[in-house]
Amino acid sequence: MTVTVRPATRADIPFLAQGNAAMALETEQKQLDLALLTRGITSVFDEPRRGFYMIAERDGVAAGCLLITFEWSDWRNGDWWWIQSVYVAPEARRLGVFRTMYAEMERRARAQDGVIGLRLYVEWENQRAQQTYASLGMEQCHYHMFERPFVRV
Fold first, then answer.
1. CATH number of 3-135: 3.40.630.30, 2.60.120.580, 3.90.1150.10, 3.40.50.1580?
2. Which residues form the N-acetyltransferase domain (predicted)?
3. Of 28, 47, 30, which is closest to residue 39 (Cα–Cα)?
4. What does the pLDDT read at residue 142?
5. Are the C-beta atoms of 12 and 19 separated by less than 8 Å?
6. 3-class DSSP state for residue 124?
């Protein structure tokens, strides 16, 4: 089976929404509001400054996706590319889908002026994902993440 990676289009929004909803339920036991999620995904296509989605396909069928968002670093005068909303369909796991998406993101980031690196966050308990990221050359950084979410309607 051949895995290819391409930029997502608006036609991929249903797959992106399904993948994000499945990932949230699987990893955090969160049931996402599909209408809100779809609006959020659509907003990325409406405002490219927010980021971009990529789709992985196995033999022409969508098998995975991820979102890249940007974080400006004044210390380094460049952008970190954050890998977010990673989803690989259950039947495509452990077949190199994420590894192929990651390799393509690293290739694109290195080719883009002003990109200083790749980042992502992972749950403390997700040892399998942490091992995967380490095997790709990523290193655990020394920061803890804090947040204060606001309720928005």
1. 3.40.630.30
2. 3-153
3. 47
4. 87
5. no
6. coil
